[in-house]
Amino acid sequence: REIHPDTVKEASLAASVALRPGAKELLSTLNALGVPTLICSAGITNIIQAVLEDAGVPHDSSTLTISSNRLVFDKELNIRAVEPSPPVTSYNKAQTVERNRDWFNSACDAGRKTLLVIGDRISDLEVARGAAGAGAAIDHKLNVASIGIFNDTPHGPQIVLEDFASHFDAV
User: Fold this and answer.
1) 76-80, 128-132, 158-162 — which one is most confidently predicted on average?
2) Do the beta carbons of residue 97 and residue 83 sit within 8 Å?
3) pTM for this structure?
């Protein structure tokens, strides 16, 4: 069976993927306040959009942008590729600013001075690389603050809360 956009959406919903507690409220509030929000994920945009839609989160607004891997469909709506190349992974999130330069510059041009990074892995902090300090990849320097969401069952090697917390501004 070919994979079509509707197939992806149906499979996403059937998998019962849920947002973290409070995520819907946070994203909806940011949208209502007009705060530019960038979701950076090593997941698939089509799936993230389906989950947001199912949860009732506005995901097609001018304030919310998803930076992740996108399924590319041909004229017959069959999947033919994944973009970008190379794909977004937990190992190359440091390229987020470079890949989303226009988004970052637009937010800064609108007067935004702080980048808040929320993540559940220490590697998620790499998203901010290139947004602050010397050698920034954008036209403006941003202050960076971070919130870590500590998982009871983290991915990969076991990490202790104290080590995790030492990397984030708040946990």
Assistant:
1) 76-80
2) no
3) 0.83
